[in-house]
Amino acid sequence: MKIIGNWETREITVDGKKLSPLDSQKVWNHSPDGFSWGYGGSGPAQLALALLLLVTHRVIATRLHQALKEELIAGLPQGDFFTEFDLKKWVLSKRYEAPLAETKRQDAL
Asked: What is the pLDDT of residues 35-57, one digit of tens each?
């Protein structure tokens, strides 16, 4: 997945398509102002959730978005950026780190 961020407008494109914060805000409204990156706050949490909703369902996206924020989004520069990231592979890797009690819920992945 190719992700591009424009710092001035806070717009994100994923594989050439603009990503809207609206769907992710319906799941969990961390940031009414939309996306941000480069630190560990609410805008980066909104971006992480929106990205995860592109590749997995709501339960998994909600469960993993804070980890994605910490591992990828917070480390991006506070400016324009371009990155390539295999989000599906990342989600699958997290599946095997889950406690046994959560295994059944994750089988839907």
From this structure: 999 999 999 999 999 999 999 99
Going by C-alpha positions, the residue among 45, 54, 49 that lies closest to residue 74 is 45
Contact assessment for residue 49 and residue 43, using Cβ atoms and an 8 Å cutoff: no
Q: Are 76 and 37 in contact (CB under 8 A)?
A: yes
Model's pTM, two decimal places? 0.87
Confidence class for position 103, pLDDT limits 50, 70, 90:
very low
pLDDT of residue 98: 53
Q: Which two structure tokens, joined as six digits, stand for 66? A: 């804070």
**Spatial CB neighbours of 69, under 8 Å, sequence gap ≥ 6:** 40, 44, 45, 47, 48
- Give the start-to-end residue ranges of the domains of the chain: 2-106
DSSP 20: P
Cβ(49)–Cβ(20) below 8 Å: no
